[in-house]
Amino acid sequence: MKNPNDGYLRGRLRSLKYAFKGFYILITTEDSIKAQLFFALIATILGFYFNISDTEWCLQFIVIGLVLVAEAANTAIEELADFVHPEYHIKIGLVKDIAAGIPTFAALISLIVAGFIYLPKILLLF
Ligand SMILES: Nc1ncnc2c1ncn2[C@@H]1O[C@H](COP(=O)(O)OP(=O)(O)OP(=O)(O)O)[C@@H](O)[C@H]1O
Asked: Which residues hold substrate (predicted)?
């Protein structure tokens, strides 16, 4: 929340503090984020193993970021939905289903990118 006594710089620093607080909450408490960080680690190991190019590293990090951002957005929407309406409601169900679609989009795109990067390299092994 905005503090009216804050100047511009102090306001920005306060926002940054809250942003890192959210980041810390996500990486320490959210199982879906932890799972995606684990997959990111596996992808990084694969990247070194197959010696992927600089462009492929960039694409890989972009889709890892996309998936993590999507999971974070899904988490925030779920938290808000549970707070606004903890009881069963068909609209809350719809909101949560749509929110769950966000990381699904990102995951499907990341699978396609992974296919482009790794399939040719894996096929060369046989
Ligand atoms: N309050 C509610 N009202 C109606 N349907 C709900 C409600 N809460 C959850 N649901 C339904 O159950 C599904 C799963 O909800 P939940 O909150 O458990 O999400 P999740 O993806 O399993 O959560 P998490 O990411 O924490 O594992 C939702 O997508 C929705 O269809």
From this structure: 71
Whether 12 is in a domain gets the answer no
Measured CA distances, 89 to 63, 83, 84, 94 (Å) = 33, 13, 11, 9
Give the domain CATH number at 100: 1.10.287.3610
Q: Is 89 annotated as a binding residue?
A: yes
Look up the domain containing 63 and give its range: 30-124
Residue 87, marked binder = yes
Amino acid at 45: I
Task: Provide the number of structural domains found in the chain.
Answer: 1
Q: Could you tell me which residue, 1 or 97, shows the higher pLDDT?
A: 97
**Res 84: pLDDT:** 97
Segment 33-44 mean pLDDT: 97
- The pLDDT of 89-117, averaged and rounded, is 98
Q: What is the ipTM of this complex?
A: 0.90
Q: Which residues are catalytic?
A: 71
Spatial contact of 113 and 63, defined as CB atoms under 8 Å apart: yes
pTM score, whole prediction: 0.89
Query: Where does ligand 1 bind, in terms of residues with CB under 6 Å?
Result: 32, 78, 88-89, 92-93, 96-97, 100
